[in-house]
Structure prediction request, 145 residues.
Amino acid sequence: MDMRFLPIVSLSLALIGCAQPDPALDVTNATVAASANSAAVYATIDNKGGADRLTGIEVDGRVPISLHETTMTDGVMRMRPVEALDVPANGRLQLKSGGAHGMSVGQISADPPELPLTFRFERHAPISVSATVTGPGGMPMEHGH
Prediction:
């Protein structure tokens, strides 16, 4: 082997070893907490691979859900929109009340009691799941049939 190429080969092998594996994501426990004028989306996103970012959520393929983070500053809880939420490598992103979550302004129908959601990511392919629709406090919605 020509010794001039040894540093290049060594660097190439080192970079290959540093490459992050593809994310391996699973979305579970998806719920939509619907109220008269808004809805929140909660779910658990487990990642058994490299880091990724949640970039969006859609209801039924047509209603966009904005992503939000809730923080506590000087005893005041504040909610702010964000472009994306980190899904850590070999970790979990928990979308929940009082933390990171999805938010829709406008009414989302509670009938049927389940809605199709699509979670979109920076690296991973979109994941579609069925979400249970609840009332604002997590109570089942009343269906007067």
Observations:
- Confidence is low (pLDDT under 50) at residues 141-145.
- The chain has one domain: 24-134.
- The domain at 24-134 is CATH 2.60.40.1890 (Immunoglobulin-like).
- The helical segments are 6-18.
